[in-house]
Specification:
This protein is of the alpha+beta class. The protein is about 50% helix and about 15% strand. It has 16 helices and five strands. A five-stranded mixed barrel has the order 1-2-3-5-4. A hairpin with a 2-residue loop joins strand 4 and strand 5. The two termini are about 45 Å apart.
Amino acid sequence: MARDVLSIAWSYMQRRKFASAIKLMEGRSEIYEENFEYNLLLGISCLYVGDIGSASSYFQRARHIKLTDTRLLLGQAAIFLRRGDTDRALQYYMDVKENDPANKTANAAMEFIRTHGDYDTICRYVDTGRIEAFYPPLGPNPQKIARFVIPCAAFMLGVGLVLCFVARGNRNPAVGQRMDLTELSLSDDEKRNPQEKDLSSQSFRYILSDKEINQAYVDVMDYFQSHRDNKAQIEINRILNSNASLSIRTKSQTVMNYLETPTFDTLTDNPTYTAVEADPYLYMDCYVIWGGKITNAINYADGSYSCQLLVGYETGEQVLGIVTVKFDSTPQIQPDQPVKILGRITTEDKKVILRGRAVYQSVNDGLL
């Protein structure tokens, strides 16, 4: 039986694959935009990845539909708790207890505020991720349960079966390996003739040899399976802007559809501002985490937001560069404090900009 998007997204969330859940649900916004569960699950996912601005926005939309849902109240309380606004957080926790007096999360959060709710302790909880103990609960992670139950069952079946299982596991793809893209492998003809035949009617940023084109595509597939999506994207960009044949460029473009949106915790191979500035085309659609301070922030009537990030200016000593950042909704940023922004590199009016995805800003006044 086919499963609806919200059920699939919840299964992702239980396995702590929040970026996958967010990407899946955002692709169904036209269908579920006014659905309470849709906005609630998106808000909870954004909360767990640290995108507090988006979480707050989705929670507000959900609140317009239903006011007293326990998960919603816990999510909104957690946002105020993260900020150190314990008075507001307590108001929400009291609302939770009116409907569910025995709620363990609300009781634990209120006890935490009573005994350890000073600003410095909250800062440390946010910094270490322990604050998630007070987020709307997701239940046990099925993958962790499987990692416990399966070995026990295998042991009871005997050493011989275990050995068979291990041997079979060595032949099969490893747990966590990504989708099999074998069908996108280059054909023998593509490997023999990887270059575009007619070079007179086009201009290319990179002129590559047969060996370089083939190697770049091999690297794309290897990086993809290694969950190094930024590295894969760089090689895809190299191919797309090169003299590679149309069929190879088309396959490279297709691989892009399987790359995932990272979080602060999952991003790998973070490109530097200097590298991107030197060759922007090579880094298009890569995700970066750049720190600094913001200026010229603007809130637009449609709810979107833009600012300029002074990259590298966390300490107020050196600015590596200035880049415009745009968010679909207003993030929670204190403009006088250092900030880290997770965003996707793109261009607008031939200038590099970031499409903001998430922000991180310590509730402490110290450095990031």
